[in-house]
Amino acid sequence: MKVGPGTLLGGFIVAGVGVIVFLIVTSSVTPEGITVSKPAAAACTKNTLDCKPKVSPTDPQGKKPFVFIDTNGTAYTPEALDGKVLVVNFWATWCGPCQHEIPAFSRVYNKFKGQDVVMLGLMTDNPDTQTLLNFESDHELLYPVVRADKDAMMQFEYPDAIPTTFIYDRKGNLRTSHRGPMSEDDLTQILFQLLADK
């Protein structure tokens, strides 16, 4: 039986549609970006994006701890983050969606202050101190800001869009990654759920 070019083309189209449907079903695609929720698991020990950062990716010996240091000089060591839900949000001062998201994240930060939640804003641009202070005031930014250095960018595999948010559970497992701005309600719901997991 001879197969004509029209039959082959039709087969390729059907196969292509199948691949697209598979990708949509296997990853939650939302208008704002991609959200991936993973089930709770045992404590995460690998030094990959799937685990809360523990070791500096630039240390060839794998012994230097990965430490977030905010613009006030506060250090967030792996030990300090143990047992905490961690929210890491990549943003920049020039980013319009980030400017819209920041006040919502600040309200969530206030809501969970004093609970086992650490929220860190990893800033990918490099304004001077006074410019940053003015920005924080103008945009109601209340949670700690960390200047994203090479270590941080490598650890989080150089996020290809901002804002991008990573949320880790108490055991250090990546439970959600979200590309694009997150709503206050979505972030609040995720944090309530992760705090309820023991």
How many helix segments?
Answer: 6
CATH topology of the largest domain: Glutaredoxin
State the end-to-end distance: 63 Å
Name the beta content range: 15-25%
Give the structural class.
alpha+beta
Major sheet description: 7 strands, mixed
CATH architecture of the largest domain: 3-Layer(aba) Sandwich
Approximate shape: globular
Side by side, the strands of the main sheet go 1-2-9-8-5-6-7
Ranges where pLDDT stays below 50 over 5 or more residues in a row are 7-36
CATH superfamily of the largest domain: Glutaredoxin
Order of helices and strands: HEEEEHEHEHEHEEH
What does this molecule look like?
The protein is an alpha+beta fold and 198 residues long. The chain has 2 domains: 1-30; 31-196, Glutaredoxin. It is 36% helix and 20% strand. It is built from 6 helices and 9 strands. Strands 1-2-9-8-5-6-7 form a 7-stranded mixed sheet. It has a two-stranded antiparallel sheet with strand order 3-4. A hairpin with a 2-residue loop joins strand 1 (28-30) and strand 2. Helix 3 (96-112) packs parallel to helix 6. The protein is globular. Residues 7-36 have low confidence and may be disordered.
Give the helices and strands, then pairings.
Layout: H1 5-26, E1 28-30, E2 33-37, E3 68-69, E4 75-76, H2 78-81, E5 85-91, H3 96-112, E6 117-123, H4 129-138, E7 145-147, H5 150-155, E8 164-168, E9 174-179, H6 184-196
Parallel strand pairs: 5-6, 6-7
Antiparallel strand pairs: 1-2, 2-9, 3-4, 5-8, 8-9
